[in-house]
Amino acid sequence: MKVFKFGGASVKDAAAVCNVGTILQAQQSGSSYILVVVSAMGKTTNALEQVFEKAFHQQDFTAPLSNLQQYHYQIIRELFPEQHPVQQQVENLFQQLQAYLSTIDSSDLYDKQYDQVVSYGELLASVILNEYLTHVQVPSTWLDCRPIIRTDPIWREAKVDWNLTQNNIQNSVKPLLQKTHVVTQGFLGGTFDEFTTTLGREGSDYTAAIFAYCLPAQSVTIWKDVAGLLNADPKLFSDTVLYQEISFQETIEMAYYGASVIHPKTIKPLAISHIPLYVKSFLHPEAPGTVIHDCRHDKIAPAFIVKQQQCLISFQEKDFAFINESNLSTIFAALANYRFKINLMQNSAISFSVCTDSDATRLPLFMQSLQEQFNIHYNTDLTLFTIKNYDEASITHLTKDKIILLEQRSRTTFQFVSKTGITVQP
Ligand code: ASP
Ligand code: MG
């Protein structure tokens, strides 16, 4: 048993869905079936966020909703003959969505209602992909993952109940995979009282890992629009290198520093159960891509990781007292309280600096809570650069012409916060 995950870009139009069909057809080897996890098509999740935002604020959402409908109908028209039953299924989903949107209540929980709306992207994509596979004679069954992946009700960031989920997968999913491929939704879960939850944006990779861990699967393959795991984001860097093989440990650390290749929660369940993760290009399925697994490697190419929209905050005690454990713990408690993740920190005799993601609403509240005790200075619109497995050449290359506010280096990692950002390659 294997798990394949197809992201939004791999099902963004009819041609892309056909390509997924071709990839699965090439896999057919009789006895071994694949659990297919699919994300919402193209940029559907962002579009649903907009629809929801309008609905929640009692604004007119007909235009963005109708765009989304047309987008899905167009894909169906190109993939299926007229009168194919998929049409009715997709219409039903849009009707359910519309019915839910009309009940949205601005005085009720934002995040809970968000999950109920945004989940339609994956529901639509999985129905369409499953019908398409069946249409091209790839044996396949649609699975609603919400009663299977059981979570708590932490809306938009739900935590998985591993015991219940594993039981459900063993009892209801494993038997299905004896007979056909199974197509299910990424990113979704469900509570005991049957509300939909989501696992955090870009969470479909994590879904693939959850299924793989619970089956257990022999491997996971994430199909992407890049050749595999690269040492930098090709949108930001022109000369990227592909890792052919890399360890779980190394990948987890890259995700920690902000590499956006794989959802950070994905690695742990796979590493624990020693399930290899392949990252491959859906445009060149024959190419080997990257394998992430238990391995030791010597020196690998430096990885360049960029976190934008950073904020650097420094604290000084008002009476010039030294920074000590007691005032540090006050600062840490406030950081936790306002949900700021520390991306980098540094202390000197009388000041403590921390680099975090900027958040225009929480930042002033956080600083207000500490301003009686500390003099606080801050800078926003900064970029945090990390070079993992650096060498001197990579540091020279990346720091060239940049205004650096703070830097730090360990044996393996070089990081700096800069006023100078980085521009997307044309
Ligand atoms: N569709 C969701 C998102 O865009 C989940 C995913 O793509 O992994 O965040
Ligand atoms: Mg996506």
Automatic annotation (TrEMBL):
GO molecular function per UniProt: aspartate kinase activity; ATP binding
Q: In which pathway does it act?
A: Amino-acid biosynthesis; L-methionine biosynthesis via de novo pathway; L-homoserine from L-aspartate: step 1/3; Amino-acid biosynthesis; L-lysine biosynthesis via DAP pathway; (S)-tetrahydrodipicolinate from L-aspartate: step 1/4; Amino-acid biosynthesis; L-threonine biosynthesis; L-threonine from L-aspartate: step 1/5
Q: Which domain of life is it from?
A: Bacteria
GO CC annotations?
cytosol
Catalytic activities? L-aspartate + ATP = 4-phospho-L-aspartate + ADP
GO BP annotations of the record are: homoserine biosynthetic process; lysine biosynthetic process via diaminopimelate; threonine biosynthetic process
Which Gene3D superfamilies does the record match to this protein?
A: Acetylglutamate kinase-like (3.40.1160.10), Aspartokinase, catalytic domain (1.20.120.1320)
E.C. numbers:
2.7.2.4
InterPro entries attached to this UniProt entry: AceGlu_kinase-like_sf, ACT-like_dom_sf, Asp/Glu/Uridylate_kinase, Asp_kinase, AsparK_Bifunc_asparK/hSer_DH
- The segment(s) forming the Aspartate/glutamate/uridylate kinase domain are 2-281
**Which Pfam family, just one, is annotated for this protein?**
AA_kinase
Which keywords does UniProt give here?
Amino-acid biosynthesis, ATP-binding, Kinase, Nucleotide-binding, Transferase
Write out the similarity annotation. Belongs to the aspartokinase family.
Protein name, entry field: Aspartokinase
Identify the species of origin: Adhaeribacter arboris
